[in-house]
Every structure is written in structure tokens, then in C-alpha cells.
Amino acid sequence: MGLFATTQEYQDTLDAEYERLYVKDSDETLQATWFEYDIDSSEQFMQSYIVKRHPEPITETDAKTFLRGIAKKIIRYTAYEREQFGDIPDSVVNGYKQASAILLDIRNDKQSIPGIDPLNATISKASRLRTSSDTQRYSRTKMSGL
């Protein structure tokens, strides 16, 4: 089960493309393994961008639907790239670039995830950085002549 949807929900989202990308081997276990691998890798990729602004698991339905759409584009690209069908279709590459741009905007707080109130979204402690230092004790002028 994925972070943003179940395996079946991802399969339903891909619809006819699932058949073309995954149902070509007679070994159903191998099909499921590749599909789950692609889901996991795409969700880890997404999580690396999202966790900065949303460290807690996302449970809102609207947010999961939005993120599932992004994951679909990344899963498609991953499957084409892994299988090396030759040239990856422009629609798949453009979808991947679009999904990556959206994730970058979410990470940089230029776009919010639907269904999550940006004012109530908690920011991880890792992104808060406070520094302090003592006053400068030594300088080139103070050290000259020693």
C-alpha cells in the first residue's frame, strides 16, 4: 500500500496504460513486483519534496487525490524509463517535468496541496535554523605584532 493511495487505486488511475506497461509477462508476481517498485520509488521521490512542508502523513482526501495525479505521471515515466521502449513519448516526459515542477513549488512554498490549510501546516524542526555566535575576539589588527 502506498502513501497516497492503495495499489488498486494506482492501477485504476493508470487504467489502460497499466495493461500496456505491466501486463506483458505471464508471471503475475513479477508484474505486481515491478508495479509496487514503481509506486514506492515515485512516492519516495515525491516525499523527498513534500516532507519539508508537511512532515506528518497526509490523510485528507483532496490532498491524496491531488498527489495521486502527480504520482501517476511519475510512475508512467519510471515504467517507460525502466523498460526502455526506445524514445519515451513526449507526453510522458512533459508530464514528468510538470509533476517535478509542482513538487518543487510545494517544497519552496509557492504552491499548497489542496485540502491542507497552509496556515495550519506544520513545518518540520529541521527547516528551522537558529544561529548565534560570540562577538569577535581576535582580528588581524589585534593579532599584529605578536
Low-confidence stretches: none
* Secondary-structure class: mainly alpha
Shape: elongated
Helix share bin: 55-70%
State the domain count.
1
Name the average pLDDT: 77
| Residues in β-strands, percent | under 5%
Describe this protein with a few key phrases.
146 residues; mainly alpha
Polypeptide structure, described:
This protein is mostly helical. The protein has one domain (7-143). It is built from six helices and no strands. It is elongated, with a radius of gyration of 22 Å. The model has no long low-confidence stretch (mean pLDDT 77).
List the helices and strands and how they pair.
Elements: H1 7-14, H2 16-22, H3 28-50, H4 61-83, H5 90-107, H6 140-143
Describe the structure concisely.
This protein is mainly alpha-helical and 146 residues long. It contains six helices and no strands. Helix 3 crosses helix 4 and helix 4 packs across helix 5 (90-107).
